[in-house]
Write a structure and sequence with these properties.
The structure holds 2 protein chains of 2 kinds.
Chain A: H1 5-16, H2 18-53, E1 60-63, E2 72-73, E3 83-84, H3 99-107, E4 112-127, E5 130-139, H4 141-148, E6 154-157, E7 168-172, H5 173-179, E8 186-191, E9 196-205, H6 210-213, E10 216-220, H7 221-227, E11 237-242, H8 248-256, E12 262-265, H9 266-269, H10 271-309, H11 311-319, H12 324-358, H13 375-401, H14 405-410
Parallel strand pairs in A: 5-10, 7-9
Antiparallel strand pairs in A: 1-11, 1-12, 2-3, 4-5, 4-8, 4-11, 6-9, 7-10, 8-9
Helix pairs in contact in A: 1-12, 2-10, 2-12, 2-13, 10-12, 10-13, 12-13
Chain B: E1 5-16, E2 22-33, E3 37-42, H1 48-55, E4 63-68, E5 71-72, H2 78-88, E6 89-92, H3 104-115, H4 120-133, H5 149-161, E7 167-171, H6 179-196, E8 199-203, H7 207-212, E9 215-220, E10 223-226
Parallel strand pairs in B: 3-8, 3-9, 6-7, 7-8
Antiparallel strand pairs in B: 1-2, 1-4, 4-5, 9-10
Classes of the chains: A alpha+beta, B alpha/beta.
Bound molecules: adenosine-5'-triphosphate and magnesium ion.
Magnesium ion (MG) is lined by residues 48-49, 171 of chain B.
Chain lengths: 411, 231
């Protein structure tokens, strides 16, 4: 072996105290494995709930915001009357003017993957005496399917028939159950504008989100325009999908410059639900972080102990011309070796745990346990483990570097 | 400066403040010539070890000036002093102070590996040569902790020699050995001085040891009381 002498000394210390090395490394192994495991669970949950959300919610939605009237009309002219009124919504219609022009413009943006018009109608489903409140989305099938992959949620019937069948409606599984209707049955809908229409169920879908399945339906966009008594060119919403959904907020601000209508990203629209994810996403890694700190403290302790036991050796090395820097190198190397062994085993153990849990089937609607195998988690765990052990070695090593050999020899 | 002077001290003074202020070294000035075998004697507590630690560059907290191999070491940076120790000074202590996990050979090689003047293989060969001089070739690969006290002391002499230092310093190198082993170590020092022209400064209580050296400095209460120049 022809290592640099500092490393050779460090390696010899490690090899002659295998037991302590293993104990210190084990601590890091457990810390790293738990770090990977918990972060993978958080990442899994978040990507599961996101993909669930994106089944019905667009990355960015453009719509006409309700305007509220001012309570006071204030003028500078003292002879004018001041008007006081109850504030209320003064929006009379929710249509976007020239939607297709806007869509064309939106599509020129490089980050926009898809832009689709949509007409949402608040309505009641009626079947015999039972009535159910819901929302029908008037869609252009090809674009909407590209955005939400509706096809994958279809339980029965054919999605594409909507484009030709103006009377056709595709309803959520919950709506079908509550209304007790099946494909080919009739279903009467009454829109909030009082338009009544008898429609034919041509398909049933299930998103596994109960709220959605018990209220939502898809209809042809032209039918939806009829239901809100608007012309074939009116559109209430424009839905956008973008390249990186996580940057939607940034894109939304960018797009807001193009239009006076409200441009809202999915995070803003779903802040409540994301708050829960965020809490889980902060707490779990914090716990893993604490475990890692304990593991680093294990290394710190063992290096500290080694240094206390090796005061004589340190004094001898210094008497023979080793500098403070060399002493630091020796003990930091020892900590690093312990940390590296521990981190490596921790990566393996973490991967194993993720592998095991990802094979656990927990039944519908979730399916397999939503845990994510994410390389970036393993990379950060590695950095984390190595940096923590370097730190855990450096603190006591600095102390060792300051040992005065004369004091040791005088004893 | 005289080229034959390898170490020179000029008015060394040092205080200890704990528990009370007292002067442990007082106006210590002397010179050591190249190849000289010098011993320092004196009653226990007179300041011999303290003086040696100052000479060794490990203790920097003193007044006056020390010059080693034409280089003023007083006031130099700690890291520079480490380099000077590594290159110019070999130590032999009363307690053998080897690194217990390493073989005898490695113990000897470590200061040379640090110096980095020779290749690993050359250093190994030189370490074997030193062991041979000290009659320990068979023990080369044994762990240092498995040797007898006398053998360990000889290994530490070999280690002190490995970088061909300007000076070997010893603080009671025979102090912890029985008379037979003391004899051996003493013979080695003499041989090093006579045959190899090695400069040696050794603190000792052993009068036989002192008598056989080239010169003995006697100390009392931090002062040199007798220079005992070579006749
Ligand atoms: N760190 C210290 N703080 C205070 N006093 C000290 C310290 N180290 C040594 N002394 C005192 O300084 C004096 C000289 O000590 P030193 O070790 O140099 O003596 P010595 O001549 O080597 O004695 P010995 O022959 O017993 O080894 C002693 O009185 C000792 O008690
Ligand atoms: Mg002493």
């Amino acid at each position: 072996m022809k290592l640099k002498v500092n490393y050779e000394i460090a390696l010899t210390h490690i090899l002659t105290r295998k037991k302590q090395t293993i104990v210190a490394a084990m601590g890091v192994t457990i810390g790293i494995a738990l770090f990977i495991f918990s972060n993978s669970i958080v990442a899994g949950f978040s990507s599961y709930s996101k993909s669930n959300m994106f089944k019905t919610i667009p990355h960015i939605r453009i719509y006409k915001e309700d305007k509220i009237s001012k309570a006071l009309s204030i003028t500078n002219d003292s002879s004018d009357l001041v008007l006081i009124s109850n504030p209320k919504i003064i929006t009379t219609n929710k249509n976007i003017v020239n939607p297709y022009g806007l869509i064309k413009e939106l599509r020129t943006k490089s980050f926009v993957v898809n832009a689709a018009p949509q007409v949402n109608v608040d309505l009641f489903y009626n079947s015999g005496k039972s009535q159910l409140k819901g929302v029908a989305s008037g869609i252009n099938v090809i674009e909407a399917d590209a955005m939400f992959n509706i096809q994958s949620t279809m339980l029965a019937g054919h999605l594409e028939n909507i484009s030709s069948d103006l009377n056709g409606i595709i309803i959520g599984k919950g709506v079908a159950e509550k209304m007790n209707v099946r494909v080919d049955d009739n279903l009467t809908v009454i829109s909030s504008f009082g338009v009544i229409k008898v429609m034919k169920v041509i398909g049933i879908f299930a998103t596994e989100n109960r709220n959605t399945d018990e209220s939502k339906s898809y209809i042809n966009i032209a039918t939806a325009q009829q239901l809100i008594q608007e012309s074939p060119n009116s559109v209430t919403d424009i839905y956008l999908s973008v390249r990186e959904p996580d940057s939607a907020a940034y894109f939304a601000t960018n797009l807001q410059e193009l239009t006076e209508y409200k441009v809202e990203d999915w995070k803003t629209a779903n802040a409540d639900q994301l708050a829960q994810d965020n809490m889980l996403g902060t707490m779990t890694p914090m716990i893993a972080f604490s475990i890692m700190l304990v593991a680093a403290f294990g290394i710190y302790n063992i290096i500290n102990m080694t240094i206390t036991q090796k005061m004589n050796d340190i004094a001898i090395l210094k008497a023979n011309g080793f500098k403070g820097k060399d002493i630091i190198k020796i003990f930091v190397t020892e900590a690093f070796i312990m940390g590296a062994i521990g981190t490596f085993l921790g990566l393996l153990l973490g991967a194993l745990l993720v592998q095991i849990l990802s094979g656990v089937y927990i039944g519908p609607p979730v399916g397999y346990f939503p845990i994510k195998f994410d390389v970036s988690i393993f990379i950060s765990a590695t950095l984390f483990g190595l940096i923590a052990s370097l730190g855990a070695g450096y603190l006591p090593a600095r102390k060792a570097a300051k040992i005065d050999p004369v004091e040791i020899f005088r004893k | 400066m005289n080229r034959d002077i390898i170490l020179q001290t000029n008015k060394l003074g040092k205080y200890f403040y704990d528990p009370i202020k007292f002067k442990v070294l007082d106006d210590v000035s002397f010179e050591v010539s190249k190849g000289e075998f010098l011993t320092i004697v004196g009653k226990s507590g007179c300041g011999k070890s303290t003086l040696l630690y100052c000479l060794s560059t490990m203790d920097t907290n003193y007044d006056g000036e020390i010059t080693i191999a034409n280089q003023i070491v007083t006031g130099q940076k700690i890291d520079n002093l480490a380099v000077i120790r590594n290159e110019k000074i070999g130590f032999v202590f009363q307690f053998h102070y080897l690194l217990p996990e390493f073989s005898c050979l490695k113990n000897i090689m470590i200061p040379a590996l640090k110096l980095g003047k020779y290749s690993y293989d050359e250093i190994e060969e030189r370490a074997y040569q030193k062991l041979e001089i000290l009659g320990l070739k068979e023990q080369a690969l044994k762990p240092a902790s498995k040797l007898s006290g006398g053998q360990q002391q000889r290994v530490s002499i070999a280690r002190a020699l490995i970088n061909d230092p300007a000076i070997i310093m010893g603080d009671e190198p025979t102090g912890n050995l029985d008379s037979k082993n003391s004899e051996t170590v003493f013979e080695i020092f003499k041989q090093l001085s006579q045959d190899f022209g090695q400069t040696i400064i050794a603190v000792t209580h052993d009068t036989d040891f002192a008598k056989a050296s080239d010169r003995t400095i006697e100390m009392a209460d931090g002062k040199i009381v007798n220079h005992n120049k070579i006749i």
